[in-house]
Write a structure and sequence with these properties.
The complex is a heterodimer of chains A (about 140) and B (about 150). With about 140 residues, chain A is α/β, with parallel strands linked by helices. Chain A has a single domain, classed as 2,3-Dihydroxybiphenyl 1,2-Dioxygenase, domain 1 (Roll). Helices cover about 25% and strands about 40% of the residues of chain A. In chain A, the strands form two sheets. A four-stranded mixed beta sheet of chain A has the order 1-4-3-2. Chain A has a four-stranded mixed beta sheet with strand order 5-8-7-6. In chain A, β7 and β8 form a beta hairpin. Chain A starts with 7 loop residues before the first strand and ends in a 7-residue tail after the last strand. Chain B has about 150 residues and is mainly alpha-helical. In chain B, α1 packs across α2 and α2 packs across α3. Chain B starts with 5 loop residues before the first helix and ends in a 23-residue tail after the last helix. Chain B has a single domain, classed as Arc Repressor Mutant, subunit A (Orthogonal Bundle), CATH 1.10.10.60. Classes of the chains: A alpha/beta (about 140), B mainly alpha (about 150). At the A-B interface, β2 of A face α1, α4 and α8 of B.
Chain lengths: ~140, ~150
Amino acid sequence: MLMIKIASAQLWVHDQEAAMKYWTEKVGMEVREDVSMPELQFRWLTVGPPGQDDISIVLMAVPGEPVMDEATKKQVLDLTAKGFAGTVFLQTDDCQKSYEAMKSRGVEFTEEPHQMPYGIDCGFRDPSGNSVRLTQLAESWPNT
Amino acid sequence: MSQVPPARYLMRARDLVDSRYAEPITVDDLAAAAGLSRAHFSRMFTRTFGESPRAYLQTRRLERAAALLRHTDRSVADICVMVGLQSVGSFTTSFARVYGLPPAAYRASLPPASMYARVPSCILQRDTRPPADTRVKTAYGEKTRSQG
């Protein structure tokens, strides 16, 4: 059977430059691809966690006309700002330590590390409003 | 209970290099991460991984720089800073020693980064799509529209 793997998942961002700075400098990811195509008014920008080379997050600008009409674009930006456009689930070996390191770099957490049945969990939002969970799975929890 | 092998402590230092290469980390920082004195750490690291901590950090930075030269259109100076190096001159020399070409020539020898950009078809199509007010209208007067 052919294997299908997740290569990238996309987040809408209101400003690609601000998003890139945030995800690299504050969250600690690295830039994977960054190509501007002025003729298409398009910039392909991806980031990923150092050491996990085969998966990345696409930081995608919300396109305007004619791909997306202005009303829809506003709706997408509004939904993203409210945190309802999707969530990224990150995993760490040490939630408290990652929380402290990221907080010292200016990440604004919406939830501090707390115990959950599946491990220790906290949450933050990126500048566009995307919701991000950061979890340290309990040793007994199946990591599948 | 068996003891944790020393390599486990050394891996903490290597993990630190792998994740924080862009920051101005020092051998002292790495020794602290491994919980060893600087001299003992450097000796143990070299014996275990076959290269010194400083060499490993430099290799990691150059490897990332090569990836950024292949997959971005950022300038060489930008990439130098992005991987944690200070001097473009030293970066160029070190890069050429390892990859056989200076950074700009290395990039020029490969397909352009735009080849790798996965531009969605809805973006590609927008150049040829007619303006909204010229599109066919449905029986209900609504403009047809496809989402990208």
